[in-house]
Amino acid sequence: MGLRSFFKRKETPPTCSAVILAAGSSERMGADKIMMKLGAMPVLARTVLAFENNELVDEIIIVTRTDRLQEIADLCYKNGLHKVKQVIGGGATRMESALAGVSAVRHDAELIAIHDGARPLVSQEVITRTILAAKQYRAAVPAVPSTDTLKAVDENGMIVGTVDRATTVRVQTPQIFEADLIKGALTKAAEQGLALTDDCAAMDMMGVKTRVVEGDPENIKMTTPNDLIAAEAIVKSRGDWYANRTWV
Prior knowledge:
By secondary structure, the chain is of the alpha/beta class. It has a single domain, classed as Spore Coat Polysaccharide Biosynthesis Protein SpsA, Chain A (Alpha-Beta Complex). It has 8 helices and 12 strands. Strands 1, 4, 5, 6, 7, 10, 11 and 12 form an 8-stranded mixed β-sheet that branches. β2 and β3 (41-42) form a beta hairpin. α4 packs across α6 and α6 (179-191) crosses α7 (199-205). The protein is globular and about 55 Å long. The protein starts with a helix and ends in a 10-residue tail after the last helix. The relative contact order is 0.18.
């Protein structure tokens, strides 16, 4: 039974728009990471497909650099990514790009998912789990437990304390929120000139607690060349779902 069939019997399914952030400079990767091939396809295409294939996602907005707008629009059109409704230019910071993306979603969206374009291995389970939690709690993020010992350091690089890793997690994306809530929070942050690197921080400003749900250690972000090696190993271990699909 599909999720939408289940909701028809229980309650109205959430209307979720996905904003994919792909406007970064890729400085640490040394190349344009979102257009690098990962298995059979570009990283960004694999990311978008994860949301294209989720039945609780109604539309996708891609936010990228202005010099890549046509290239990415063509990629989506030629490869039948029908849920992609707009490809728009981002801002100078991640927060500005997120604000541009949430401002472009359909007016009746109940929820908005904000996802890093460089996280191509996000699973359907993580997307769905986070959407359902956001519907219930207004704000939800996937996360995995911290496994390393965490230390607090001062401005001189000296350790000043140990952080209890039992109460810390490594937050992933998609981060999903009530649409009006995240629009208002990001607008407020922009008006105050804040440079937030995490959308949950915008919720903190609004006094809204974010629900943490189970993430996935394989939902890694592509930042350095070593991440590409790890991602290729994950794709191989899963069996490349899209190995036989031709990309143009």
